[in-house]
Amino acid sequence: MTDSPTGRPNKLFRNLNAKIASVPMILTAVVIFVGGTGWTIVHSFTNSRLLPRLNFVGLDQYERLWTTPRWLTSIENLLIYGSLSLVFSLVIGFVLAALLDQKIRFEDTFRTIFLYPFALSFIVTGLVWQWLLNPDFGVQHVVRGLGWESFSFNPLYTKELVIYGILFAGLWQGTGLVMCLMLAGLRGIDEDIWKAARVDGIPMWKTYLFIVIPMMRPVFVTTLVIIASGIVRVYDLVVAQTSGGPALASEVPAKYVYDYMFAAQNLGQGFAASTMMLLTVAIIIVPWAYLEFGRRR
């Protein structure tokens, strides 16, 4: 081992075993993820169909992408689903965490119940909510069976409401994880802060709004990144609940990419759409990385 002039081990050889053990992971990240990403971006500028080929056509695939009504519909749906999912996930998750933080009885039981949906796959969640929202034997059928014959509730079969039916399923599955993250942040707040707020006569809602929430900024930022990255990749719920219908009213970018790459056998168009999704994720990740690491350095 090479020593520095001060007699201490050279930084290059510190934690050498750990560095050697991380080599396979680094190679995997560089070769598969970075290499695959670069390969996808390059072929998004080609007219590849069934098989990839380096026949460059410039920005033709992107021009076609942004003039396709199906892609524009998927972006609109993603914006609606994403904005509402972000807001409601944070609000519901934080409220549930604040309630559990009151040291209530059977806290472990409630925490397990709220977190359990997150253990299910999105396919299972989508099928469950497809049954619940089905007008023939779901909520509408049950309510009409109780005597309200005029009651109507079939969002998955209404073009204007279908994205909100998918939102119900997404919130049901993901809110439990947000609750656990928020609860961990609340449990990290010093008890003396709560005592000081009570002594000063500060209402609890003001304590949360002006003291606790600002102290939980790292938790909120991390939670936002987790939720946002999941929103961009939403696919399973849509396929399980509606398959993009009715009449492509619930189309999302991930399904657009899958259909063009495997069903339509148009790799160039699929690569262009996936590159736009990658750009969206980068817009989310880069500011988060700067907030977490750049400013700290």
Automatic annotation (TrEMBL):
<feature type="transmembrane region" description="Helical">
    <location>
        <begin position="78"/>
        <end position="100"/>
    </location>
</feature>
<dbReference type="InterPro" id="IPR051393">
    <property type="entry name" value="ABC_transporter_permease"/>
</dbReference>
<keyword id="KW-0812">Transmembrane</keyword>
<keyword id="KW-1003">Cell membrane</keyword>
<comment type="similarity">
    <text>Belongs to the binding-protein-dependent transport system permease family.</text>
</comment>
<keyword id="KW-1133">Transmembrane helix</keyword>
<feature type="transmembrane region" description="Helical">
    <location>
        <begin position="271"/>
        <end position="291"/>
    </location>
</feature>
<keyword id="KW-0813">Transport</keyword>
<keyword id="KW-0472">Membrane</keyword>
<feature type="domain" description="ABC transmembrane type-1">
    <location>
        <begin position="75"/>
        <end position="290"/>
    </location>
</feature>
<feature type="transmembrane region" description="Helical">
    <location>
        <begin position="207"/>
        <end position="232"/>
    </location>
</feature>
<feature type="transmembrane region" description="Helical">
    <location>
        <begin position="20"/>
        <end position="42"/>
    </location>
</feature>
<protein>
    <submittedName>
        <fullName>Carbohydrate ABC transporter permease</fullName>
    </submittedName>
</protein>
<feature type="transmembrane region" description="Helical">
    <location>
        <begin position="161"/>
        <end position="186"/>
    </location>
</feature>
<dbReference type="Pfam" id="PF00528">
    <property type="entry name" value="BPD_transp_1"/>
</dbReference>
<feature type="transmembrane region" description="Helical">
    <location>
        <begin position="112"/>
        <end position="132"/>
    </location>
</feature>
<dbReference type="InterPro" id="IPR035906">
    <property type="entry name" value="MetI-like_sf"/>
</dbReference>
<dbReference type="InterPro" id="IPR000515">
    <property type="entry name" value="MetI-like"/>
</dbReference>
